[in-house]
Inverse folding.
């Protein structure tokens, strides 16, 4: 294995159908119109020296190293800023050019430390390379003149350093921060000799920097450098794999020394990220080798006993024996399992197969239940496919973007960078969110409208938008006529035209001025391309499914489906939430969303799996909890999901887990759920996994192991062995064999194989005979279900209401540096940005309660209470408070309720009536958590203590 070197063509591609013919160094070649001479040369294998140019950034033309001679042109133009022209004759290597380049390099090196041998960039420094390329031997100016060599390093960022003594002021970092990331944290201060890179007025850590690392990647010297490279040295080989955090699904090169990761570098060819990343994927991978990792199987008969490390054989035999015993005493349906959206498709597939074939029931559900299950339901009803319609690239063609209940700069940062780029090009943004998220007003970004609706009124709002479109004659009639079911449309049109949906009527419910709603509706409907993007602020409501269908109605009514720049696009939460749903994790569906009661489908699986299967849907997660408390559900297998922290109404979840006779947890750490477990099966981190993740754009990406499983086994192997011990042998030669089985049994995956993924990089399903290389944009010529189906979306207010005792509404979300329940990110330096969950509260609400910024407050709902510190923030509308749920000590879900989506049971995390009061004491809940913190309560027998 070698280090994968991606060619840097110097300037971005300029796709064009028009080719021009030119000659470079005597070679005749063709290049697309608009391409730079530098790129045209690089595409033909001719390297022109460069320093300030790189192909992820627009050309800048500052270093003067890339000069060329062009017949008929005066002087020596910079090849990075000169576009190709028909008949152009270019020379890249002449004596004059060599002398000029040497002169440029002499100037740079005269003001540069001469510590190449001990420099961390040694072997990976473009300045060093260029000194070699131009044949620099002497520096006529000497090294004693005025220089920048004694400037102090900025070490404030936990992941990278800034050493200005090595800076050549090429501005690549400044441009990367602006063009690629869209944060504009860096500037060049001063002029001429005094010019220098500045991160605001202070250091990086106290600037606007979000630590995405784009500047570090762009820097051609050791000025901006990963601390991991400084500590470990340059990597020697790399493996392409996929980030295991969010549903963007960024591709990375894991750059390695042996089996140690040195750094993660986003892959330029990555379909989802095209060379960009956020702080989590690029830097927060240290959890994989954290000392808290559990690497040995453990069992205990009672949860009050200490854990006992055992062999794999014993752990598997014990689990199988206990599961079988429960079934013997309480029936086949008394056990079940939960699959994880953090795991690979192959691992998820193995667990659901074990449950259906070895447990003999359909009691399988997935953590998608608590996030995007309404997406699956709503899009299937209206379009026929339980997935988003576009690829991420599509946003570059959108003219108006309707962003609902999503905060991409925190939740889906790499998509946010694409979105911001499009907004800087002139697209308009409409934000529907109670909270004033960063995209409402940020650097070089300003939303055309922010509709700060009251939590729980999404459906009223979208119906009002649709009402305007229908009653003001903005419906795309030809599209509806050609593509949608006419009877459903007429029914919907009559429904939505009713005055009860008019913005003026709905204003009292949503709190948003009618005129703002009308303006937003006209803007979206009038766009050449209108795109909807949404997140958990849509789905995690009692009407989550209704809202998804309402958005689909809106897109169909305006003809915004089936081409680039449009669509209805869920921003999926976890890395493989799309995949875990695709893999048959729901109790009513086999892979590819086919109902278990469908005879033909069931027969297909029965023949392939060689066993009879249950045609009745099994229990959903909330049903499992209820049945456990009621006493009919006794055994649970949980794959990589901390349900005790992530699911709503923590007291209820804890009671259910306590009632189980057997809880088997397969995970990396002894998490909150493991507090209740009897068997712990150590899992694998993404750096050890072999398989695939499917991101929010249906893109199947390869996850390749860069190190051996620390537990000694892949998770799917453990599951296969458990199924075998239960009496149903499951065996595959490798993860590729599991994908072959998935492809054999799933029409949308028909053409997928590891070999194809290795060849193409990634594939977006459906991938079959009709689309052998996948389908970036869905529903191009017709909906998957045939005619698009308009659904009636009556607004039904949630039963969770503010009251005299609980007058505020709590809504929850994520922050950039942390992820989900924080199990991974809390074990990295990301804690430096968000060491605790905070409660954002409007100044008026705070003043009424005598709360000052930073005060400890009690947060109480009808079901529980916790305490945390308050931050006074005008981002919140009055009457609404907000927090994250990344830290178990806060246990934000102790206050969230059992209300859930009517169709899918997705919990209503986004609406909880609460009271907030000043308090200097931890809640009873927190006192209990401190006493029972699993990290502290990890009672291992003394002779088996883990590392
Ligand atoms: S820090 Fe690096 S990228 Fe930025 S100006 Fe200096 S040398 Fe160029
Ligand atoms: S790390 Fe990212 S946000 Fe921070 S300065 Fe560099 S490019 Fe900008
Ligand atoms: S945007 Fe998501 S997938 Fe990409 S690097 Fe960040 S966390 Fe990973
Ligand atoms: S690479 Fe062209 S001017 Fe710097």
């Amino acid at each position: 294995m070698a280090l994968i070197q991606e060619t840097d063509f110097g300037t971005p591609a300029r796709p064009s159908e028009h080719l021009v013919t030119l000659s470079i160094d005597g070679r005749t070649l063709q290049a697309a119109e608009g391409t730079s001479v530098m790129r045209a040369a690089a595409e033909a294998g001719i390297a022109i020296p460069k320093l300030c140019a790189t192909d992820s950034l627009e050309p800048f033309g500052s270093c003067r190293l890339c000069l060329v001679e062009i017949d008929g042109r005066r002087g020596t133009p910079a090849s990075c800023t000169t576009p190709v022209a028909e008949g152009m004759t270019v020379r890249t290597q002449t004596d004059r050019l060599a002398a000029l380049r040497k002169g440029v390099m002499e100037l740079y090196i005269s003001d540069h430390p001469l510590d190449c041998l001990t420099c961390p960039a040694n072997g990976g420094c473009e300045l060093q390379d260029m000194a070699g390329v131009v044949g620099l031997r002497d520096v006529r100016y000497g090294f004693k003149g005025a220089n920048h060599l004694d400037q102090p390093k900025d070490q404030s960022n936990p992941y990278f350093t800034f050493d200005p003594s090595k800076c050549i002021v090429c501005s690549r970092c400044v441009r990367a921060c602006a063009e690629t990331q869209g944060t504009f944290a860096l500037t060049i201060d001063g002029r001429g000799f005094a010019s220098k890179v500045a991160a605001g007025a202070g250091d990086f850590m106290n600037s606007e920097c979000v630590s995405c690392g784009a500047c570090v990647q762009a820097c051609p010297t050791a000025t901006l450098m990963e601390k991991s490279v400084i500590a470990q040295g340059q990597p020697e080989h790399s493996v392409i794999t996929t980030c295991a955090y969010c549903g963007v699904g960024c591709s990375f090169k894991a750059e390695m020394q042996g089996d140690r990761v040195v750094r993660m570098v986003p892959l330029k060819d990555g379909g989802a990220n095209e060379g960009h990343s956020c702080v989590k994927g690029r830097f927060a991978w240290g959890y994989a080798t954290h000392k808290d990792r559990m690497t040995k199987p453990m069992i205990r008969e009672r949860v009050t006993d200490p854990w006992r490390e055992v062999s794999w054989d014993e752990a598997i035999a014990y689990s199988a024996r206990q599961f079988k015993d429960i079934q013997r005493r309480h029936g086949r349906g008394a056990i079940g399992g939960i699959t994880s959206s953090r795991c690979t498709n192959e691992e998820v597939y193995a667990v659901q197969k074990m449950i259906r074939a070895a447990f003999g029931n359909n009691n399988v559900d997935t953590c998608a239940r608590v996030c995007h299950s309404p997406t699956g339901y709503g899009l299937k009803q209206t379009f026929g496919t339980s997935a988003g319609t576009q690829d991420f690239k599509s946003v570059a063609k959108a003219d108006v973007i309707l962003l609902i209940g999503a905060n991409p700069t925190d939740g889906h940062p790499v998509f946010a960078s694409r979105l911001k780029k499009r907004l800087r090009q002139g697209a308009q943004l409409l934000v529907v969110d109670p909270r004033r998220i960063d995209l409402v007003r940020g650097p070089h970004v300003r939303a055309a409208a922010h509709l700060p609706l009251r939590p729980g009124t999404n459906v009223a709002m979208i119906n009002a938008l649709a009402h305007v479109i229908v009653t003001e004659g903005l419906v795309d009639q030809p599209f509806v006529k050609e593509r949608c079911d006419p009877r459903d449309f007429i029914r919907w049109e009559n429904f939505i035209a009713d005055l009860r949906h008019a913005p003026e009527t709905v204003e009292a419910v949503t709190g948003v001025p009618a005129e703002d709603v009308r303006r937003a509706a006209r803007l979206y409907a009038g766009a050449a391309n209108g795109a909807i993007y949404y997140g958990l602020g849509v789905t995690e409501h009692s009407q989550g499914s209704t809202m998804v269908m309402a958005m689909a109605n809106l897109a169909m009514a305006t003809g915004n489906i089936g081409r680039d720049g449009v669509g209805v696009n869920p921003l999926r939460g976890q890395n493989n939430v799309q995949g875990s749903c695709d893999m048959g994790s729901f109790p009513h569906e086999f892979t590819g969303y086919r109902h278990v009661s469908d005879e033909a489908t069931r027969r297909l699986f029965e023949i392939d799996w060689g066993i009879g299967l249950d045609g009745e849907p099994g229990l959903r997660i909330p049903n499992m909890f209820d049945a456990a408390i009621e006493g009919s559900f006794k055994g649970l297998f949980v794959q990589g999901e901390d349900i005790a922290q992530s699911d709503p109404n923590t007291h209820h979840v804890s009671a259910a887990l306590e009632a189980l006779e057997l809880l088997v947890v397969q995970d990396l750490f002894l998490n909150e759920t493991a507090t209740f477990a009897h068997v712990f099966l150590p899992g694998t981190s993404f750096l050890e996994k072999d398989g695939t993740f499917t991101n929010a754009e249906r893109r199947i990406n390869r996850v390749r192991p860069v190190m051996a499983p620390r537990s000694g086994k892949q998770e799917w192997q453990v599951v296969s062995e458990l199924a075998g011990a239960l009496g149903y042998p499951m065996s595959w030669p490798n993860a590729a064999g599991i994908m072959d089985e998935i492809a054999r049994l799933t029409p949308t995956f028909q053409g997928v194989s590891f070999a194809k993924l290795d060849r193409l990089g990634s594939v977006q399903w459906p991938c079959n005979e009709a689309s052998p290389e996948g389908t970036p944009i869905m529903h191009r010529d017709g909906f998957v279900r045939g005619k698009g189906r308009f659904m009636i979306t009556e607004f039904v207010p949630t039963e969770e209401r503010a009251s005299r005792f609980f007058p505020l509404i709590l809504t929850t979300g994520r922050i950039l540096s942390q992820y989900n329940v924080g199990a991974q990110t809390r074990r990295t330096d990301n804690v430096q940005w968000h060491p605790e969950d905070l409660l954002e509260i409007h100044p008026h609400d705070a003043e009424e309660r005598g709360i000052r910024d930073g005060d400890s407050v009690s947060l109480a709902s009808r079901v529980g209470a916790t305490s945390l510190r308050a931050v006074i923030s005008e981002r919140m509308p009055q009457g609404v408070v907000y927090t994250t749920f990344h830290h178990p000590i806060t246990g934000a879900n102790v206050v969230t309720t059992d209300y859930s989506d009517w169709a899918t049971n997705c919990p209503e995390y986004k609406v909880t009536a609460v009271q907030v009061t000043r308090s200097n004491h931890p809640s009873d809940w927190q006192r209990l958590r401190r006493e029972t913190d699993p990290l502290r309560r990890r009672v291992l027998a003394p002779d088996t203590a883990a590392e």
Notes: The pocket of iron/sulfur cluster (ligand 3) is lined by residues 243, 245-246, 248-250, 273, 277-278, 280-281, 412-414 (CB under 6 Å). The longest helix spans residues 312-330. The two ends are 30 Å apart (CA to CA). The first strand starts at residue 19 and ends at 24.
